[in-house]
Amino acid sequence: MANLPLHSGKCPPWLFSHMKQLGAAIIRAIVEEYGSREVLVRLSDPVWFQALGCILGFDWHSSGLTTTVCGALKEGLEPYQQELGLFFTGGKGKTSRKTPREIEMVGEKYALSNELQSLAYASKMAAKVDSAALQDGFQLYHHFFVFNTRGNWTVVQQGMNDATRYARRYHWLGEGVSDFVCEPHAGIACEQLVTTLNMVAKESAEARAASIELTREKPEIVLNVLRKMEQKPKTVKGPVQLAFNFDQGETIPVTNAFEQEQCLQLTLPAAHDIPNSGRINSILYKIYDRRPENFEKLLAMPGVGPASIRALAMVAEIVHGVKLSFRDPVRYSFAHGGKDGIPFPVDRKIYRQTIDVLEGALKRAKLGNSDKLKAFKRLSVISGIKGMME
């Protein structure tokens, strides 16, 4: 879990200017020493990304760290993209939705030979998974897609929860994604665990398959079940459980052990809203006409969002008896300081010196003298932080 409360306001212009320079120098140093792939690997690590934001002088625990660091890297490294073979696309709000087109424009500008369509597809699917297949209450508003000339890629995207006023950051590493709809994340950082419909969990494999089965049936079957689920069960004495009667096609209260054994039981968390059957009528018919081959094809379809995925999953649980996963995939934990000069204010003089030293070392390395960069590497070993560098 990461302490990432939503904060308003903007980064001071002088600090953002310095962040662009220092961020660019750090990334260029990594490429010089380890290659462009290593940058993608590190950006996919929530802990390393958070540390980078701290090094650049931004708030330790603010949601703004994500958007500001990504913006600084994109602007600061724009002049070096072709030289590094590393390209930065996407951003916040409307810019995030233009990422696939931006990938194509970068490819055209630098005459890239790798498969740009597959990169654009990866960008779309990463956003679709974290907005529709992983329903944790966080609405995506930031999508940052970085790739190199070999077609390797990473994604850093963030969502917000207006009710709790916290943000959640999702990290992807392309080479680690063998399946977009089964455990695809490199890491997820958030303040707290929440009730989550996780259709990309391993445990949801049967639910994904059952959802596809339902798309091949007439939409009336799904809509009928949803309508019954929207209705309140009849009032009966004693403990009540809901079950689905396959002969009558309706949800009924179950009151004794014998009846409970004869029917499939539905158990849902209180916060798991039932989608309105009337609103998803058209999209279900659209899915039925196209007959998607698998869950990934279903998720990739335009118009398929959280409500339609949730509806199919819940009906699949009733009709096919599959179990849904509500496992929150958050993995990382941080202990952070505060903001506004806590634990200490940014020292502009030292910040400037750090930029100058790194840029000077990079210039010397280009001329064949990499002594300073090697000295940094030796220092990291001596300081016991080799793990952060390699």
Q: How many DSSP helices?
A: 17
| Helix fraction by DSSP (H/I, runs of at least 4) | 40-55%
Q: Compute the gyration radius: what is it?
A: 25 Å
Mean pLDDT score: 80
End-to-end span in angstroms? Answer: 24 Å
Gross morphology is: elongated
Number of domains: 2
Give an account of the 3D structure.
- The chain is an alpha+beta fold.
- It folds into two domains: 13-196 and 331-346, no CATH class; 202-319, no CATH class.
- The protein has 17 helices and ten strands.
- It has helices at residues 13-34, 36-43, 46-55, 64-76, 81-84, 94-97, 99-109, 116-133, 205-215, 219-230, 257-262, 281-290, 295-300, 306-319, 348-366, 371-382, 386-389; strands spanning 86-92, 134-135, 139-148, 153-161, 166-173, 187-190, 197-198, 241-245, 250-254, 264-265.
- The strands form three sheets. A five-stranded antiparallel β-sheet has the order 1-3-4-5-6, sandwiched between helices.
- Strand 3 and strand 4 form a beta hairpin.
- Helix 1 (13-34) packs across helix 2, helix 1 (13-34) crosses helix 4 (64-76) and helix 7 (99-109) packs antiparallel against helix 8.
- The longest helix has 22 residues, at 13-34.
- The protein is elongated and about 70 Å long.
- The chain starts with 12 loop residues before the first helix and ends with a helix.
- The model is unreliable at 234-271, 333-340 and 385-390 (pLDDT under 50).
